[in-house]
Amino acid sequence: MKRFVSGESRSQATLFPEFLDDFVTEDNPVRAIEAFVEALDLRHLGFQGVDPHATGRPAYHPAVLLKIYLYGYLNRIQSSRRLEREAQRNVELMWLTERLTPDFKTIADFRKNNGKAIRDTCRDFVVLCRRLGLFSQAIVTIDGSKFKAVNNRDRNFTFAKMKRRAEEIEKSIEHYLRQLDSADQGALAVTEAQTAHLKEKIAALTEEVQQLQVIEIRRSQAPDQQVSLTDPDARSMTTRGTGVVGYNVQTAVDSRHHLIIAHEVTNVGSDRGQLSRMAKRARDASGTSDLNVVADRGYFKGEEVLACHEAGITTYLPKPKTSPSQARGLFPREALRYVPERNEYRCPAGERLIWRFKNVEKGQVLHCYWSSACPGCSRKPQCTTGIYRRIKRWEHESVLESVQGRLDQKPEMMRLRRQTVEHPFGTLKAWMGATHFLTKTLKTSARK
C-alpha cells in the first residue's frame, strides 16, 4: 500500500540496542522510582526479607518487589497476575527489575506482608515532597469516598436486613405450604413431582433460617450491630442514595500540586467525625503550622470544628441546612441575630430573646434564650408553632460563627475544594474500573 506509513516484516531480524538502558529515556518515570527506592532504608521501614537467610532458595530483595508495586500503582496495574505478565514483556519493568520476573504469588505476598512498611514508604515520599517545598501554600482539602469491598451485599447483615429477610422467608414458607395443600388435590403424578419440589424449597428455607439464627447471634454481639461474612471489617454504607458494602476512604490533598498528603481507610460510613483527625494528620505530614483546611458540609460537627480551632487549624466548611423551622416555612435560625455584647438574640420583629438558663445535652453545655413577647407577636405564625420561639446556643457557638464568617468572605474556597480533592478519587476509581464511556453522542439514526 503506497502513501501509508509502512511497517517492517515480522520475519526481519532486528538488531536491538546493546544495552537495555537505551530503551529507557532519561525522563522516564521508572528512573524516578529507581532513585526513590534505592534511597530508602528498607530495614528501618520494616520490610521483611531485607536480610537473606543463610540456607534455602534465594529470595527476591524487597527493593525489587517494591519497585514493581510502585510501577503498578503509577500505571493502573493492581492485579498481581498482571504485574507478573508485565514483568515478562514490559521493557520498562525489565529495566526496573533488571530482568527479574517474580510470580504473582510472590508479588501478592509482598503486598500482604508489608502493609505497614508500604504506608511508611508513602510517608517518606510525603516528607520528600515537603523538603522540596511542594506544600508551601498551606491549604489542603479533605474529602471521603466509599469504595466497594469484595463482600457482596447479600453477605452483609444489619438489623433491618435480618428482619426483612426473616419476613420474606416466613411468607415464602406459608406460600409453599398452601401449594402443598393444593397439590394434594391434584393428579397423582403431578402431585408427587410438585410435592417433592416444594418440600425441597421448604427444606432450603428452613436451613437458611437456622443459618440466620447463628448470624443473628454474631450480629447482636457486634459493637455496631452489623456483620459481614466475606470481609469482616467491611460495613454497609449509604452513598448517593444507594447502599454499598465497603470502606470510607479519607484523603487530605494539597491544593497546589494535588498531592495526597494524608489518607486513612475507615469502616465508619459518616464523615462527621473525621475532620480534626485528618486535619491534624495533614498538618503533621506537611510540616505546616499555619494550616488552612477546606471540607464540605458533610464534615460539619461542632466538636470537630472546635478541635481544629484548639489545634490552631483554620477551617472552611459550610453549615448544613437542617433547620426544621425552615422546612416548615418558618423563620430559620439564621434569621435571629445574636448580639454578643448583650448576650441575647434579636428576632425579625425586633424583639429581644434574653438568656434564661443553661443545661447539658449529649455532653454539650447549651444556653437557652426566648422572648416574653412571643405570645402577642404579630409575626408569630411565621416564627414558631409553640408558645415561644426558643433558641439553644452552644457554649462554643462563636467558633462555628467564625467559620461561617470566613466562608462568607471567601466563597471561592468551596470551588477550590471541588477542583482539588474530588479529582484524585475520580482517578483512583477510574483506575479500578468504575469508569464511564469515553465516547460521546449517538449516531444520528440511533437518536430517532
TrEMBL record:
Please list the GO biological process terms of this entry: DNA transposition
* Keyword vocabulary terms for this entry: Coiled coil
> Which stretches make up the Transposase InsH N-terminal domain?
20-112
**GO MF terms held by the record:** DNA binding; transposase activity
Describe the location of the Transposase IS4-like domain by residue ranges.
232-442
* Coiled-coil boundaries: 159-215
Q: InterPro entries per the record? A: IS1182_transpos (IPR047629), Transposase_11 (IPR002559), Transposase_InsH_N (IPR008490)
Protein name stated in the entry: Transposase
- Can you name the source organism? Litchfieldella anticariensis (strain DSM 16096 / CECT 5854 / CIP 108499 / LMG 22089 / FP35)
From the broadest rank down, the organism's phylogenetic lineage runs: Bacteria, Pseudomonadati, Pseudomonadota, Gammaproteobacteria, Oceanospirillales
